[in-house]
Amino acid sequence: MDSTKPSLHIWSVGGHERYRPVLTQFYSGVSVAILCFDLLNLATFNELGFWYNEVKRNCPDALLYLVGTKMDEPEGKVVKIPDAIKLV
User: Whole-prediction pTM value?
Assistant: First the structure.
């Protein structure tokens, strides 16, 4: 059994373009990435292609998880679950 302890570092840039120049410093040692989008905001869903390519370019072996947020909001969803599933 491996005696090393895994570590968890969570970095959130919230999709802001102003953080894109510093993204490469966050990719060292990444084995999992969680790509989140807002079900109430189509722009966040449309940006997933950028983030997928960004992670795969810098961390080709990383596992990726796609998470839709604000599922509990009863109204206003502009991203439909079937569309998100097609993306996966």
Answer: 0.77
